Amino acid sequence: MKLSDKIQNIAPSATLEIDSLAKKLKSEGEPVIAFVAGEPDFKTPDFIVDSAREALLNPANFKYSPTGGLPELRKLIASRTTEQVKNQIEFNSKNVVVTNGGKQAVFETFAALLDEGDEVIAPKPLWLTYPEVIKFFGGKLKLVDDLSLESLKAVVSDKTKFLLLNSPNNPSGQVLTEAELKEIASFIKKTGIFVITDEIYMNLYYPENSYPANSQLSDEQDSRPIAPTLLNVSPEIQDQTIIINGVAKSYAMTGWRVGWIVAPESIASAVISLQSHLTSNVNNIAQRATLAALGDTDENYQKSKDSIEEMRLAFLRRRDLICRELSKVQTKDGKGRFTLSIPNGAFYAYVNVESLYGIPLGKDGDIVASASQLAKLILEKVLVACVPMEAFETPGYLRFSYALADDEIVEGVSRIQKFISE
User: Band of the pLDDT at 210, cuts 50, 70, 90?
Assistant: First the structure.
């Protein structure tokens, strides 16, 4: 039987493919170091797990619950989003849809709003799932190198429906500044298009120059910094803004599969209608755990803030470590090297490797002409896995997740340096 054209046009996730290969090699006893997965290596905090354990004792959680999410969870998400925006905007439960992870939130948002031929503007680099979902629903992706007004005006048309933002960004770790966000908001307001803003990494933000962090914070900065967002700077575009978020990254809960959409009520209602046919409600035990993660009591809220800050500071230290190590990677003559900018969000180092093309590498003098070839070579030669960025629309780059232990970071990059400089 012939598969549908839509399914045949969907490319598998490059990161999950590489992660699966690295795990397979590891299971076979190979000493692989993987800078691949987009998930924290921390365990889910105990108070969240305890909440899930308690929920298992309540038979009510074994039944269907409202498609849009547990009422108390929708209310808490609305409250926390209102706090994060930090201005006069007020969200309520009707703005919120709880989804099976951030990916379902992305998929359902485009399913509810994208028609054949609609255009979506997005900056490079972008997370590899976005293009596949846009393509699946018949949309057209229009990429820009930056989010300046000049770049946006050059591609907007009467078919443009959305601008897609992801800050802090996967894969680059870069964070949009308040000035950049104000310029983007002005564009949104003038054109009348919608904006989808993926804020899944917003708590993993590093305004400090380096670790240790607390001594570097100014009096004006929150002791637990949150990345600036579009509605922070421009509340007037609330009715044109759809927020995607979840507990995966900030709470070390990738496997719990809880995300959400915060959107105008009409859009949230449409997404709930779709979800009623797709998955019904999200797992109730995971929803109960998410209530604890977001701070359903004063005690849990303090534990939540403390656990986020502990993880954020650990990632900040690792960021400094991996950037120092990666900047040392070069050929013996120095003509080919890794180059990178310091990321100020998420947990990825984004490395340009184009200067290594055409240069004999390692003892065997292997030649590469793409980031994909280099990533494959590094995995074969020194058992280190990283992600080539072709699928993220930026060929010539590799992504290194620093969601792993310090000693693994040093060992993994050292293997690459030894290989490149031979």
Answer: confident
In a domain, 51, yes or no: no
Among 236, 268, 297, which residue terminates a domain?
297
The identity of residue 243, as a single letter, is: I
Answer whether residue 97 is part of any domain. Answer: yes
Residue 48, domain member (yes or no): no
pLDDT at residue 11 in the model:
76
Q: For position 205, which CATH number holds?
A: 3.40.640.10
Question: Which residue, 246, 241, 244, 245, is CA-closest to 264?
Answer: 241
- 186 and 265 belong to one structural domain: yes
**CA–CA separation, 188 and 282 (whole Å):** 32
Beta bridge partners, 399, equal 350, 387
Which of 375, 377, 351 shows the shortest CA–CA distance to 365?
377
Mean pLDDT of 141-145: 97
Q: Is 311 exposed, middle or buried (0-12, 13-18, 19+ CB in 10 A)?
A: buried
Tokens matching residue 172: 């680059």
Residues 344 and 156: their CA atoms lie apart, in Å, by 29
Sheet of 160-166, strands arranged across: 96-99, 259-262, 241-246, 194-198, 160-166, 119-123, 140-144
Q: Would the pTM count as exceeding 0.85?
A: yes
- In the chain, the number of structural domains is 2
User: Residue 384 in contact with residue 412, Cβ under 8 Å?
Assistant: yes
Q: What is the mean pLDDT of residues 49-75?
A: 98
Predicted confidence at residue 219, as pLDDT, reads 46
CA distance 222 to 57: 38
Q: What CATH number does the domain containing 312 carry?
A: 3.90.1150.10
CB of 326 closer than 8 Å to CB of 349: yes
Token pair, residue 9, equals 């046009």
291 plus 317 within the same structural domain: no
What is the per-residue pLDDT across 290-329, written as a single tens digit (0 to 9) for each?
Answer: 999 999 999 999 999 999 999 999 999 999 999 999 999 9
Instruction: Say whether both 29 and 67 belong to one domain.
Output: no
Instruction: Name the token pair of 306.
Output: 């403390």
Can you give the residue range of the structural domain that contains 358?
Answer: 5-43+308-421
Which stretches within 163-214 are classed as H helix?
A: 178-191
